[in-house]
Write a structure and sequence with these properties.
Blueprint lengths: L2 H33 L5 E5 L3 E8 L11 H22 L4 H23 L3 E7 L2 E5 L1 H27 L4
Antiparallel strand pairs: 1-2, 2-3, 3-4
Helix pairs in contact: 1-3, 2-3, 3-4
């Protein structure tokens, strides 16, 4: 496959995964806000998983409450940096690009809330994990975790073959 065509396909993976996560995040938040009154919850799996409607003016998992303005700027900068990272690292594997799209979509999902609503809607609540979170938070964590694993895998592959000094 030609390099240009491959690069285009990888960019499409990146953009589509980011857009899918953004849409999934915004649709689920809309459904929660439309169907669950603020501060209330619905039990999805008894004694395990609840859907709640909680407003968060902080960062992921409720940290840094009240810093919406600063977090909006940080989110915008993070999105720009994700795009720069994608361009600079030029990952030639589809999975890398999808995972970077997860991070992009998660960052965009919470940025949309902060920018247009002034707060983020969190709604996923596990009985064993106190912070309430949303789809965007989930994909930020999943994306960063997978990127770290992929980078470590590449690093150890290079060490094993003698490619790292």
């Amino acid at each position: 496959m030609k390099k240009t065509k491959r690069k285009l396909i990888l960019n499409v993976y990146f953009l589509i995964s980011g857009i899918v996560i953004l849409l999934l995040d915004q649709i689920t938040k809309f459904l929660v806000v439309s169907n669950i009154q603020g501060g209330t919850s619905k039990e999805l799996i008894p004694n395990f998983l609840y859907i709640v409607n909680v407003k968060n003016t902080g960062a992921a998992f409720g940290m840094f409450q009240g810093y919406t303005g600063i977090l909006t700027v940080i989110s915008f900068i993070a999105i720009v940096l994700i795009i720069i990272l994608k361009i600079m690292l030029n990952f030639n594997y589809g999975f890398y690009n999808v995972v970077l799209g997860f991070i992009l979509g998660g960052a965009m999902g919470n940025l949309v809330d902060r920018f247009f609503v002034g707060e983020v809607t969190d709604f996923i609540s596990f009985i064993f994990f106190p912070p309430v979170f949303n789809v965007a938070d989930s994909f930020l964590v999943i994306g960063f975790s997978l990127i770290i694993i992929l980078i470590l895998k590449e690093y150890f592959k290079k060490v094993k073959t003698g490619g790292v000094e």
